[in-house]
Write a structure and sequence with these properties.
Layout: E1 8-12, E2 18-22, H1 24-67, E3 71-78, H2 85-95, H3 101-113, H4 129-134, E4 141-146, E5 150-156, H5 164-171, E6 176-182, H6 187-192, H7 197-207, E7 212-218, E8 232-235, E9 238-241, H8 253-271, E10 280-284, H9 310-316, E11 328-336, E12 340-345, E13 351-352, E14 356-360, E15 364-373, E16 376-378, E17 380-381, E18 386-392, E19 404-407, E20 414-423, E21 433-434, E22 438-443, E23 446-459, E24 473-474, E25 479-491, E26 505-507, E27 516-519, E28 536-537, E29 544-547, E30 556-557, H10 567-605, H11 610-623, H12 630-635, E31 642-650, E32 657-659, E33 663-669, E34 674-680, E35 685-696, E36 699-711, E37 717-720, E38 736-742, E39 746-751, E40 756-762
Helix pairs in contact: 10-11
């Protein structure tokens, strides 16, 4: 920049005159200041440019490191209890350097003190005292290890039939499965025969999307098997070395055992829809001794096996296809750690720090603060990774297992009802499946109670096409299209669009596996006269509007134009549904009338069985009788109101109940909105609570303001309990009753604690 040596400077002075003069010194000072400012700007610009270059280089290095990162697989260990899953898991961690010798010595001592010397390797995976004491895995164990080319997340699933729901949770997160089978005499048969968990675990794994299976035959070093070449076989009273090649009519007993297991498993795996040539690998190991695990075993140990080691097999398995669609991460657990942290496996898409996401089905917006993968903090992560994600915008108590961390652009659908194709593979003998069947639904990390509302059509298992004709029930081995309703909203996808969130299983509390494979498209509209659900009509043509099946909106939408029936069909359908509705209402009315009669008899005689009363409670609660006349019937139209005597009380969920042993009455004054609750002991005295109540719909909320105690002939003692503002009415935060039935003789209600009771009308007992 060229600056003249002299310049004219005009300085404003108060006397409205300009002073013009030459000032070389002033020019020099300003010139120096200007050059300093220019230099400072140049340095600042260079520093910013350097910082930007360093940041770009760092991000590029991170991206390169991410690209060069080992591939990742989730492996779930499944199989019958005591097959050695936890022991193998512990041995893997030891051989891969995740556990040192000092920890192993500690576990050996602990196991020896409990007289369980062979369990010490399992202690690495089974960390809580209950698991170590029983020798049975309860929760899904989780650990990480690496082979030459792959990072693994190891999921140790429980093998006992009591913990199958936990096994389902582990298998739903897996890419590959490791089926552990015990070669010990009697143990394979126990796990494989009916009632054993080997079969059920295989079927569940396939249903849950585990397409690759490594079958490890464990405990090959057991004395009942013994793969040592020095083993001798006694035949015809002559000792013959097992390694001597003799033409006799028997095989080496080890080969017999291994071959027997393989020959029994292969047909079963095929029937479970596994491709045994491409997707299944068999190999023998000893989990306790670590033989044929990290490296191939010596031919002196097992002359007949020359295949790869367990680690080599795991390293050679192909990574299943990953979905790069919208972000989806089912939440398996949550906790507080400098904020809210959620855990889960990324099923689709990618995530990075700073992302704005949404937690479904509650639609809570959150922001990603930090991401942890295999205990390491990372900037971003892709599909297949098991992550811990720290988020803001929500508290951990507002998150449940089964919620899904989802992208905001295309969030995961949340529904309470959907149509699905179901395959029945585990019903008990002579049992059938009908509408109304209740079970537990397991889908990704969610567990919900559900009910099969309608059987739509049966599936031909050969052609996989729906069969014509009405279906009333199906038996074991059949396939059926059905409509399923769940208690709370769950996150699901159509199987054809997103298999990972479209697979699910149904199980009863007894452990019966129902099994399932796919969701149906929402374009499949079904009209069934046998359906007990209501159908909404809103257009002049009376075209039925039915609930969309897993379309992401869970709302009422019309069918496609090509599927709209003609007017005659619509009218016929309307008449049929109307008749069904009237029939259902009449049936419900009869049930309520019969139930009320049972309760009135119980009030008079106190001889009706508790089971009958509980059944009457259930029928009355389900009926949801119109509550509009309840308050006047309960409390009368004038003070002092009406008095009711407590007859029978039942526990929460109507599990059991009994006749109330004391004389307990309640007075309700509808005009004055007052309540009085008393227990009377005849000449001994009485205890009475008095207060006010409010009424909304069928809920009566109340607060007590004073207690009146009367002992014998003495005057009553009154004790104040403190009063709310006179204008403030009781709310649902206060004690309340939910009234299900009230007439001139009896009343039925449920309290805040969940217990149900009924009263009969009586004259007021004088104080």
């Amino acid at each position: 920049m060229d600056v003249p040596l002299y310049f004219v400077s005009a300085i404003y002075v108060p006397h409205d005159s300009y002073l013009c003069f030459y000032c070389p010194l002033y020019l020099f000072i300003n010139y120096v200041d200007l050059q300093a400012e220019i230099l400072a700007l140049q340095l600042d610009s260079a520093a910013k440019e350097k910082a930007a270059q360093e940041k770009a280089a760092k991000e590029e290095a991170e991206e390169e490191a991410e690209a060069n990162k080992k591939r990742h697989l989730n492996a779930v260990f499944i199989g019958h209890v005591d097959a050695g899953k936890s022991t193998i898991g512990g041995q893997i961690l030891f051989l891969s350097g995740q556990v040192d010798d000092r920890q192993i010595q500690k576990y050996e001592k602990e196991a020896k003190d409990k007289s369980r010397e062979s369990w010490y390797m399992a202690y690495i995976m089974d960390t809580n005292e209950e698991e170590r004491a029983k020798g049975k895995t309860v929760e899904v164990g989780r650990a990480h290890f690496e082979t030459k080319n792959t990072r693994f997340t190891l999921l140790d699933a429980p093998g006992h039939k009591s913990y199958v729901p936990n096994m389902i949770s582990g298998a739903s997160q897996a890419d590959i499965g490791v089926l552990v089978i015990s070669a010990r005499k009697g143990e394979f048969e126990t796990g494989f025969e009916n009632g054993g968990q080997t079969r059920e675990h295989v079927q569940l794994a396939k249903t849950l999307g585990v397409s690759k299976l490594v079958v490890v035959v464990n405990k090959m070093d057991d004395p009942t098997v013994n793969w040592s070449k020095e083993r001798y076989v006694l035949t015809s009273n002559i000792l013959i070395p097992a390694n001597v090649d003799i033409l006799i009519s028997f095989h080496h007993p080890l080969l017999c055992r291994y071959d027997k297991i393989e020959q029994k498993m292969v047909p079963f795996l095929k029937s479970s829809r596994y491709n045994t040539k491409k997707d299944v690998i068999f190999l023998p190991i000893s989990g306790l001794m670590g033989v044929n695990m990290d490296k191939r075993m010596d031919r002196n140990v097992c002359p007949w096996y020359s295949g790869p080691s367990f680690f080599e097999v795991l390293d050679s398995i192909e990574v299943p296809p990953r979905d790069n669609g919208p972000f989806r991460m089912p939440i398996i657990d949550k906790f507080k750690d400098m904020g809210t942290v959620v855990m889960g496996k990324v099923e689709s898409g990618s995530i990075k720090e700073g992302d704005s996401l949404i937690i479904m089905p509650n639609k809570d917006p959150v922001k990603v603060v930090a991401i942890y993968c295999d205990e390491d903090k990372v900037k971003r992560a892709g599909p297949g990774e098991n992550l811990r994600v720290r988020i803001t915008g929500i508290e951990d108590e507002d998150i449940l297992s089964g919620f899904v961390l989802s992208s905001t652009v295309k969030p995961v659908p949340a529904v309470t009802e959907f149509v699905a194709q179901l395959q029945i593979i585990g019903l008990p003998e002579k049992a059938v499946l009908t509408a109304g069947y209740k079970a537990i639904l397991h889908i990704h990390a969610a567990v919900e109670e559900c009910e099969i509302m309608e059987l739509i059509s049966q599936i031909d298992m050969e052609t996989r096409e729906p069969m014509k004709g009405k279906v009333r029930f199906v038996k074991n081995g059949a396939g059926v299209v059905c409509r399923i309703q769940v208690t709370n909203s769950i996150c699901v996808e159509k199987f054809s669009d997103f298999p990972q969130l479209g697979r699910f299983t149904l199980r009863t509390e007894a452990g019966t596996l129902l099994g399932t494979t796919m969701m149906l498209s929402p374009a499949s509209w079904v009209f069934s006269p046998s359906s007990s659900s209501s159908v909404v009509f809103s257009r002049p043509q009376r075209l039925p509007l039915v609930r969309s099946a897993v379309d992401g909106r869970n709302e009422i939408v019309p069918p496609a134009q090509s599927q709209i029936p003609n007017k005659v069909l619509s009218l016929c359908l309307f008449i049929v549904l109307l008749v069904n509705k009237v029939h259902s209402l009449l049936k419900l009315l009869v049930e309520v009338t019969e139930s009320v009669s049972v309760l009135k008899t119980a009030a008079k005689t106190r001889k009706v069985a508790a089971e009958e009363i509980l059944a009457a409670f259930s029928a009355i609660e389900k009926a949801k009788v119109d509550p509009s006349p309840f308050l006047e019937t309960l409390g009368g139209s004038e003070s002092p109101g009406r008095t009711w005597m407590l007859i029978f009380t039942a526990e929460k969920k109507l599990k059991k109940g009994r006749y109330f042993p004391l004389t307990a009455v309640q007075r309700f004054d509808a005009a004055g909105k007052r309540i009085e609750n008393g227990v009377y002991l005849g000449p001994l005295g009485a205890l009475t609570f008095e207060g006010k109540f409010s009424w909304k719909n069928r809920i009566l909320a109340f607060i007590f303001e004073q207690i009146r105690i009367k002992i014998g002939p003495l005057d009553p003692i009154k004790i104040g309990l403190g009063k709310k503002d006179a204008e403030e009415e009781p709310s649902n935060k206060d004690p309340f009753f939910i009234w299900f039935y009230v007439d001139e003789e009896i009343a039925v209600a449920r309290g805040r604690s969940g217990g149900t009771a009924f009263w009969c009308r009586c004259r007021r007992i004088a104080s």
